[in-house]
């Protein structure tokens, strides 16, 4: 029988009452199906296998998507090096010992141990939200894009955080090349071939580098579009890009991008993108049909709809044991959590919200929840940051790992090896490796499937309906 008591062995009144009502099962609610959510649930179903088999524990994972997206592979998916379906991991297959609920947590009342959810079924039924009770809570909703009140951004900006956005951006870039190839208006052509990326972190730099590589290759199949006709612009508000790889490697990355005629503008901000014109803080104006926003993330809004303590940045205050500070039976890790970085040896320093920490925190988190349920002592999370790797396109990259600095092909190769080792499941590893091997033997795919965004458009037109208001290529 699992003992759902707090860490010091004293039963929580609510938990005790629930055990009296339902003595055979303790429910662990995991909010989020990303890195932390999936890996924590996976760890729990392994560590608590005997309890799950006896029906003493139930693990419920609430996630808006039935899959986990391996985000470091999004740039390669956008460039066509990896199939989109191999960038995601189906949760129901991996978490076969858990109950996966496709929906979103709207609010959490931890004092009552209840979460308010909306699911696909509740929306169809018109029943509104549903309430789910729990005994242990794992909050891992991740983060959302951090936007600024830039005029025109909501109307014309494109994000780069989901696999849908990555594939949509690939289709969009190729469609802009189609527009440029077929128009006779030089202004439309210039705007179609101008691509502005805002944000010099991993997402922005890798997405721009991979797509520029892809577009430069694709241009050879257009009779009137050349690589030098395209303008690729990277806008970064600080004085460096890729701060995770260090100053020296960051400067090398800038030189490498500029060598490819990519316009890197440091200490510059996007002031406006109204009327499809990107206006920068340095006074430059670029007519463009493509503005990609990758300027940081912020905690998921559900954190504000809880009664749990947060810091000034909106992240949950956590202990080194990954419990939420001052609260029992509540846990967090990843982007949503402010976890002390005890390995850094600096008081007040927190773990960076990145995948490297998230995956390792999930392992400790799963172990600690299992230990808590069994009345065993908890362990602290401590991981010394190993370093970072970043791709700058095919066969190009930068890396700063364990004090060693690499660039060019060795860094690119290390980037692929590292992320191949990190992507979940042997199935995905094998498929990604097979696709990389085939892409090295054959030519790149240059197909745009923008019509996937409106799959019923042709049938609606044939059936007498009206064509889509947003036709292909107008985004």
Automatic annotation (TrEMBL):
Keywords: FAD, Flavoprotein, NAD, Oxidoreductase. Residues 1-22 are annotated as: Disordered. Residues 27-361 form the FAD/NAD(P)-binding domain. The keyword Flavoprotein applies. Its EC number is 1.6.99.-. It holds the Pfam family Pyr_redox_2. The keyword Oxidoreductase applies. Belongs to the NADH dehydrogenase family. This is NADH dehydrogenase-like protein.
């Amino acid at each position: 029988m699992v003992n759902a008591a707090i860490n010091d062995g004293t039963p929580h009144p609510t938990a005790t009452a629930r055990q009296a009502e339902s003595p055979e099962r303790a429910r662990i609610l995991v909010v989020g199906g990303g890195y932390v959510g999936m890996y924590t649930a996976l760890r729990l179903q392994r560590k608590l296998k005997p309890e799950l088999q006896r029906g003493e524990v139930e693990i419920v994972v609430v996630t808006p998507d039935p899959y986990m997206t391996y985000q470091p592979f999004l740039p390669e998916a956008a460039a066509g090096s990896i199939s989109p379906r191999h960038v995601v991991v189906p949760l129901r297959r991996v978490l076969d010992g858990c109950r996966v609920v496709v929906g979103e947590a709207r609010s959490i009342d931890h004092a009552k141990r209840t979460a308010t959810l909306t699911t696909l079924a509740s929306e169809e039924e018109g029943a509104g939200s549903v309430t789910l009770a729990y005994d242990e809570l794992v909050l891992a909703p991740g983060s959302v894009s951090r936007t600024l009140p830039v005029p025109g951004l909501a109307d014309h900006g494109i994000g780069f955080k989901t696999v849908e956005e990555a594939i949509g951006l690939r289709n969009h870039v190729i469609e802009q090349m189609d527009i440029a190839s077929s128009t006779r208006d030089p202004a439309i052509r210039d705007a179609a071939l101008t691509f502005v990326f805002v944000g010099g972190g991993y997402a922005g730099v890798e997405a721009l580098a991979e797509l520029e590589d892809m577009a430069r290759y694709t241009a050879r199949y257009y009779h009137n579009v050349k690589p030098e006709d395209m303008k690729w612009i990277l806008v970064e508000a600080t004085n460096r890009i890729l701060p995770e790889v260090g100053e020296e490697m960051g400067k090398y990355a800038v030189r490498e991008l500029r060598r490819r005629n990519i316009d890197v503008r440091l200490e510059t901000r996007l002031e406006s993108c109204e009327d499809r014109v990107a206006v920068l803080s340095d006074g430059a104006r670029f007519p463009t049909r493509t503005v990609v926003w990758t300027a940081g993330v912020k905690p998921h809004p559900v954190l504000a709809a809880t009664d749990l303590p947060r810091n000034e940045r909106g992240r949950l205050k956590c202990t080194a044991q990954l419990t939420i500070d001052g609260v029992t039976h509540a846990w967090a890790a990843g982007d949503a959590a402010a976890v002390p970085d005890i390995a850094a040896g600096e008081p007040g320093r927190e773990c960076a919200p990145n995948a490297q920490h998230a995956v390792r925190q999930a392992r400790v988190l799963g172990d600690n929840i299992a230990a808590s349920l069994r009345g065993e002592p908890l362990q602290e999370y401590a991981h010394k940051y190993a370093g970072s790797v970043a791709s700058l396109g095919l066969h190009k990259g930068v890396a700063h790992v364990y004090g060693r600095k690499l660039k060019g092909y060795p860094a690119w190769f290390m980037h692929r090896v590292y992320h191949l080792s990190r992507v979940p499941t042997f199935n995905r590893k094998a498929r990604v490796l097979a696709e990389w091997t085939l892409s090295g033997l054959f030519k790149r795919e240059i197909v745009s499937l923008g019509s996937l965004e409106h799959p019923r458009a042709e049938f609606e037109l044939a059936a007498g309906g009206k064509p889509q208001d947003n036709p292909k290529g107008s985004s």
